[in-house]
Every structure is written in C-alpha cells, then in structure tokens.
Design brief:
It contains 13 helices and 21 strands. It is of the alpha/beta class and 461 residues long. The protein has a nine-stranded mixed β-sheet with strand order 4-5-3-6-7-8-9-10-14. Helix 4 crosses helix 8 and helix 5 crosses helix 6. The chain is globular and about 65 Å long. 35% of the residues are buried. The structure holds zinc ion. Zinc ion binds next to loops. The site of zinc ion has 6 residues, from loops. InterPro entries: ANL_N_sf, CapK_Type1_Caps_Biosynth.
Length: 461
C-alpha cells in the first residue's frame, strides 16, 4: 500500500506532492513508519540498559532463524554453505560466523538476484541505493522491517541527547530537490525545518540564516560539509543564530577542523553518527562524545585488520533484512577500536574510539606512504578564502586539489595551501595541481567527498 502511495505521489504535480508531504508529517511517527517502527522503539527502550551478555543473547536469537532462512531461501547463501560443506547448524553462535566468507560490494553487484530471498514477494521489498560517494553506486533491496529499525535508532540518538516531543529540529542535507526554488521547507506537524544545500549561493545562505533565526532549532541535524559552509558564511558576514542544544552530524566523514569550526561558530557540541544505506553496522556518539557506541540491535559488528596500521575495516551482519540478507558485509569503512572500555554515560553498548574515512579516502604517495584524510584536512585550517575543497588522486604521481574560493584566491593562500599539503604528504615528488573552480559537483546522492582516489591502492601496496 505504501509503495502504491509513493508511486502515486511521484507522478503528481509538485504542489500536490508538497502538501501531501506536509500532511504526512503531521502523523505521529508510529503511523508514518508502521508497526515495525513501534516494535523497534519498544526493543530499544528495553535494550537501553542491557549488559553485554544480553546483547549477545539477543543477536544469537535472531541469527539462528536468519541463517536457516538464508540456507533455505537465498540461492547465493545456499551455494556458500554447500561449497563449504556446512549447514546453519554448524554456526552455533556469533563466534562461528567466521565459517562464512565476507560479502563484498562486488558480490552484491554481480549476484543481485541470487541474493534475494525466493520466498519474499517483490511487493514486500523496497529498492535502495548507495550514493557512490566512494566508488560506484550500488542497488540493493530491503524488506519493510529494516528501515524502521534505522529510524528507531535515529530517534534513540535524539533521546540520548535529551530530546522531548515538541523540540524543533533543523535538517541540512545536500540532496537535490525536485523544485530547487523550495530549498527551505517547514513541516509544522513534525516541527522540522528542512534545508537543502544542493545549490547554495550567497542569497540562499542568507535566507537559510533568516529561517534559522526565526525558527531557533533545539537540534541541528546536518551533513558536515553543508554546515561547514554555513559556519564560514556566519563568520564572514558577522551574523549569528541562537545556539542549538546539540548538532548532529552523519553521512560524511567528520574531519577535526570541520568539527572545530562548527562547534565554535554555533556554540554547541557536535555529536556524530556512523551508518550506511545498507544498514548493517551502526555506531553513534552519546552526549559525552568520547567514542562511538556500537548499536548491536541492528546487527553484528566486526572489525577486521587492514594494511593501514591501527585501522580496522567495519564488517556488518544485518539481523533484520531478510529480503536481501547481508552476512559479514564489508563496508569499506575504517575504524579505530582503541582501548576505551567504558563511557561515563554508563551504557554498555560497546565502544569504538574513532570512525575514519572510507578506504578510497586515503592518498598514496609515489614513496608508497598512505596519507590519511585526517592529516590532509589540517592543510586547510584557517585558509578563510576557501569555501570548499576536494582532493583527487589522479594517479600515483598526481594530486589535483580543487578549490572553490568565496571570492578570489590570493597568491599567499595558494602558496600556503600547496606548502601545507606537500608537508603533510611528506612527498617531494608528488605533482600537486591546484585548480580554482566555481563549483565542486556533488555525487548523485548529493555528497561531496573530500578525497576521491582513482587508484587501486592494492596495486601498489
Ligand atoms: Zn556514552
């Protein structure tokens, strides 16, 4: 039914869609998202105070029927089990999961149909995509019970920060809009202000600030790159807005200088969230912002070693999506486990020290040094003439730095930037090209990755 309504409104004239969306947001969340959402909220309120053993027991309770389902109904997994000469009974718990191979994006792309459960109707699935901010976009399918868990976790994120019904939230995202003129929209029912950053010129930045001054959000939920531009605009124009209680970031890597600039300008702490469209592994910061609490309710979170010292890759097994099960899915995202054992907040959700860039986000120098985006990010500190920047590794010897200035780029800023980048790369031979441009195009999903590497680093390491 919901799919039918969606297609109905997709073809409707723009004003009808707009009013339908506003009316929809007047509905309480449990009606908008259905019974699965209510169930997920109930689960999360119970699991809030679970101990580590309770999380494991919960995951194993869901894992057993999931594996049986994969074996009986999903052709790809059936052949995986058969090739290894095992059956679901051989996986008695989470520690036995390593009897199964990792699932790569490449396999999902190639197998597609073979990963779909034969006993689930297409009408009970929804198509989903990754934005392709690193690598090629991926199409996959989810059953209708998985997104509600994601949404319930997003609600938990707010509740952990003291959100109460009636609090106002402003969203800043980069998604393209059907009608770009309506880049600011207000949904009174949900008390949400939604602002699209897809095209943000000076007039639009001023309009956004006007809306923020009028609306005075308690929470700002934003992609870091969007809020960073607004923070620079506030500093440039001397305007100000009432500080929100918290700023929530997600969807893009949160680099230290971006966090610092946002916190300083908006006078509010930044709380970050890690997740992915495939919903296999989620981790979020609490109000202490010490590390990231893994959310075992979504899936089994594994960390596997990489060729980058101290960094592990995040691998996730989603316990909910039975339409296209993701078992031991390699996200390509990197994290530092660290030794933080407990958080002052007292929650027993396991901790990660840091979530880092995606695999492709690293630069490889001709001297075979891998340079983290976090290090290159520091090259841009206090270069206030720069509005946006992107680094593209064209080949092993060439780095293209695209820069969008607010007005013009002075010779001294150019020289400082080139010097800072070279120092951080520690590479005398890398050819660095500085391109001044009017715009850095966003990906189809609206993202603007800081680093794009055209290298396959494994060919060189
Ligand atoms: Zn905590």
């Amino acid at each position: 039914m919901r799919g039918y309504l969606k297609s109905l409104f997709r073809n409707a004239p723009a004003p009808v869609v707009e009013w339908a969306q506003i009316a929809y947001h007047f509905l309480p969340a449990r009606w908008r998202y259905g019974r699965s959402f209510t169930n997920a909220v109930r689960l999360l309120s119970e699991s809030e105070h679970w101990a580590e053993r309770d999380f494991i027991a919960y995951q194993e309770r869901l894992l057993e029927p999931l594996l049986k389902h994969c074996y009986e109904n999903v052709p790809y997994y059936r052949s995986v089990f058969q090739e290894r000469g095992i059956s679901p009974r051989d996986i008695q718990g989470i520690s036995d999961l390593d009897k199964l191979p990792y699932l790569t994006k490449e396999t999902v792309r190639k197998k597609q149909k073979g990963l779909l459960a034969e006993n689930i109707s297409f009408l009970d699935m929804e198509e989903a995509h990754t934005s392709g901010s690193s690598g090629t976009p991926l199409t996959f399918y989810m059953d209708r019970n998985t997104r509600p868990v994601d949404r319930a976790l997003a609600l938990r994120k707010l509740l952990w920060l003291g959100y109460k019904p009636g609090d106002r939230i402003a969203f800043f995202k980069g998604m393209p809009l059907a009608n770009p003129a309506k880049f600011i929209r207000y949904f009174p029912g949900a008390r949400e202000l939604r602002i699209s950053f897809h095209n943000s010129d000076d007039k639009r930045l001023n309009d956004m600030l006007d809306a923020m001054q009028y609306y005075r959000p308690d929470f700002i939920d934003a992609w870091p790159s969007c809020l960073y531009i607004l923070a620079q605009w506030i500093a440039k124009t001397g305007r100000s807005i009432a500080p929100p209680r918290y700023i929530l970031t997600a969807s893009e890597n949160l680099y230290p200088h971006i966090r610092e600039k946002i916190e300083k300008t908006f006078h509010a702490p930044v709380i970050d969230w890690y997740g992915q469209e495939e919903s296999v592994a989620i981790a979020m910061q609490c109000s202490q912002a010490k590390g990231y609490h893994i959310q075992p309710e979504m899936g089994v979170f594994e960390l596997i070693p990489t060729d980058k010292p101290g960094l592990s890759e995040i691998v996730g097994t989603c316990l909910h999506n039975i339409a296209m099960p993701f078992l031991r899915y390699r996200t390509g995202d990197l994290a530092v486990k660290g030794d933080v054992q407990s958080c002052p907040c007292g929650r027993k959700h396991p901790l990660l020290e840091k979530v880092m860039g995606r695999e492709a986000d690293f630069v490889l120098t001709p001297e075979r040094n891998l340079v983290s985006p976090l290090i290159l990010d520091f090259a841009f500190i206090q270069l206030d003439e720069i509005r946006e920047a992107q680094i593209i590794q064209e080949d092993i010897k060439t780095l293209r730095v695209r820069v969008v200035p607010w007005e013009t780029l002075s010779e001294s800023t150019r020289a400082t930037l080139l010097r800072e980048i070279r120092e951080r790369l520690e590479s005398p031979t890398m050819n660095i090209i500085l391109d001044e441009t009017d715009d850095i195009p966003r990906t189809e999903g609206g993202k603007r990755p800081f680093i794009i590497s055209k290298l396959r680093t494994e060919d060189y390491l």
